[in-house]
């Protein structure tokens, strides 16, 4: 089987070849005959000769010693090389463009030595192709036009309307606007546009760099900075820790919409899959043998995220995810300012306020999880309890489903450092709450249209959009056993759901499959 070099081996090999072409000459460079330390294929050698021809064409122009500093800048040399390569049928793939970058940096050093440090060749701070960003980038060709002409495409492209985009821009502009230096900076509007496009489409940063005529490093830094700004401006209004009155309203909403009393929120966690971080060993490797960071969230009855914890690496044991989260520690310490015990509706039975969770979380006095499978066989009461708890958990399942369906960056592994991934996650959660609130909390808005989320009798449309995704995965079930007091509280709920005061007409039909 003929060896085919990996992408990074092309990069190393051709960067070395370009450098050697200048320092040692063409034949010496070709005689090295290696790419990434291995022998080149015949096709690679032909490509190398074509590249060498292009470089020699530049060298014959004697641009190193020209006295006309307007004729040969590095940008001009870059365009000349690209034209020469194109005329020889060399495709401008990533490794070619990176090689040109490396060769031109080497050329700057050689040029400085050639003319005694007074080189007429100027070091560029932008890839030559990106010099035409102000005229040719996707932002200029498409975004500006659809802002003025097509609201529907604008919504599909960004996941926000033009008016919502402008609202966000006014909020984040002070944090992402850069002062002008010798080159016009990327505008705050373009920074926000590119960030929203990456988050909403899931396009990788290389594709984004090509579409917006920017360097990949620029795109990475821009994405990180803008996500941080989005979180900074939206968090105080759309993701603030609930107050006592907020908790009381959340509890009322859960009883009204999901028929679970004294409920302060539904909890779930997801592994957000990432590219393996450099030098991380197995720190971020989870039970599925992928690398991830963990997002733990509390969601209210209206699919709004109310508390999130991010940053835990995927290697964390499932039992420790909750205990080591910010939310878990605050709940244990009593620092969440939640209401005290209150009577269950239409009774004088006192019960603490609780959060609802699945088997991945421990049973605690303020945290209810289902009865285990061994306690369900032939036990109607326990099955009814588990159905009611599962129904109350639907908001968090729907919220994560909406998040992944609308912000497609979560639909495949994210190629960023864990710290940047945290900023992306927090920005997307804030954007979710912003749009859910701004478009109204009904299930017929542009952000959450009719039929998009799960209901009692049908699965939501979002499931079709994310069924084969690999960017988020569930945390595993935990074998945690609760205290005696926590078990008593769960028994109280189970009895209540069979009582006249807590009974639902359709609950028997739901667990016995009559719907």
UniProtKB/TrEMBL annotation:
It is found in: Nucleus. Its main location: nucleus. Its cofactor is a divalent metal cation. It comes from the Eukaryota. GO terms for molecular function: hydrolase activity; metal ion binding; nuclease activity. Residues 267-433 form the DDE Tnp4 domain. One of its GO terms (cellular component) is nucleus. The keyword Iron does not apply. Keywords: Hydrolase, Metal-binding, Nuclease, Nucleus. InterPro entries: HARBI1-like, HARBI1_dom. It holds the Pfam family DDE_Tnp_4. Belongs to the HARBI1 family. This is DDE Tnp4 domain-containing protein. It comes from Hypsibius exemplaris (Freshwater tardigrade).
């Amino acid at each position: 089987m003929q060896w085919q070099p990996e992408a990074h081996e092309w990069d190393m090999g051709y960067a070395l070849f370009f450098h050697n072409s200048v320092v040692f000459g063409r034949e010496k460079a070709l005689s090295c005959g290696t790419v990434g330390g291995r022998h080149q294929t015949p096709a690679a050698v032909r490509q190398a000769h074509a590249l060498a021809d292009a470089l020699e064409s530049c060298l014959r122009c004697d641009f190193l010693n020209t006295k006309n500093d307007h004729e040969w800048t590095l940008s001009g040399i870059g365009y000349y090389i690209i034209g020469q390569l194109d005329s020889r049928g060399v495709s401008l793939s990533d490794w070619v463009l990176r090689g040109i970058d490396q060769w031109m940096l080497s050329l700057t050093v050689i040029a400085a030595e050639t003319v005694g440090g007074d080189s007429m060749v100027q070091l560029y701070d932008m890839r030559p192709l990106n010099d035409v960003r102000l005229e040719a980038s996707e932002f200029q060709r498409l975004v500006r036009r659809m802002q003025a002409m097509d609201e529907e495409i604008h919504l599909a492209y960004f996941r926000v309307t033009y008016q919502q985009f402008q609202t966000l821009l006014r909020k984040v502009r002070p944090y992402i606007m850069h002062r002008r230096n010798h080159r016009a900076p990327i505008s705050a509007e373009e920074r926000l546009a590119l960030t929203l496009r990456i988050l909403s489409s899931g396009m990788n940063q290389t594709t984004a760099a090509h579409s917006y005529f920017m360097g990949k490093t620029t795109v990475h830094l821009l994405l990180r900075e803008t996500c941080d700004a989005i979180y900074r401006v939206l968090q105080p209004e759309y993701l603030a820790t609930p107050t006592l009155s907020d908790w009381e309203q959340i509890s009322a909403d859960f009883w009204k919409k999901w028929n679970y009393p004294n409920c302060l929120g539904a909890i779930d966690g997801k592994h957000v899959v990432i590219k393996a971080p450099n030098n991380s060993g197995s720190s971020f490797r989870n039970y599925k043998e992928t690398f991830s960071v963990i997002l733990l969230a509390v969601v209210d009855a209206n699919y709004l995220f109310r508390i999130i914890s991010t940053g835990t690496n995927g290697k964390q044991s499932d039992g420790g995810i909750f205990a080591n989260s910010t939310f878990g520690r605050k709940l244990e310490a009593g620092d969440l300012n939640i209401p005290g015990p209150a009577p269950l509706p239409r009774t004088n039975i006192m019960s603490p306020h609780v959060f609802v969770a699945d088997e991945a979380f421990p049973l605690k006095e303020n945290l209810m999880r289902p009865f285990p499978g061994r306690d369900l066989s032939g036990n109607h009461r326990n099955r009814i309890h588990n159905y009611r708890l599962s129904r109350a958990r639907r908001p968090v399942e729907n919220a994560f489903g909406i998040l992944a369906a609308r912000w497609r960056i979560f639909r495949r592994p994210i190629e960023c450092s864990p710290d940047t991934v945290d900023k992306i996650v927090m920005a997307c959660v804030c954007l979710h709450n912003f749009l859910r609130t701004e478009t109204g909390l009904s299930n017929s808005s542009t952000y959450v249209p009719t039929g998009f989320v799960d209901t009692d009798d049908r699965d939501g449309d979002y499931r079709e959009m994310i069924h084969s995704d690999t960017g988020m995965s569930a945390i595993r079930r935990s074998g945690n056993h609760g205290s005696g007091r926590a078990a008593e509280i769960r028994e109280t709920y189970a009895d209540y759901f069979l009582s006249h005061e807590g009974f639902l007409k359709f609950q028997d039909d739901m667990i016995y499959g009559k719907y």
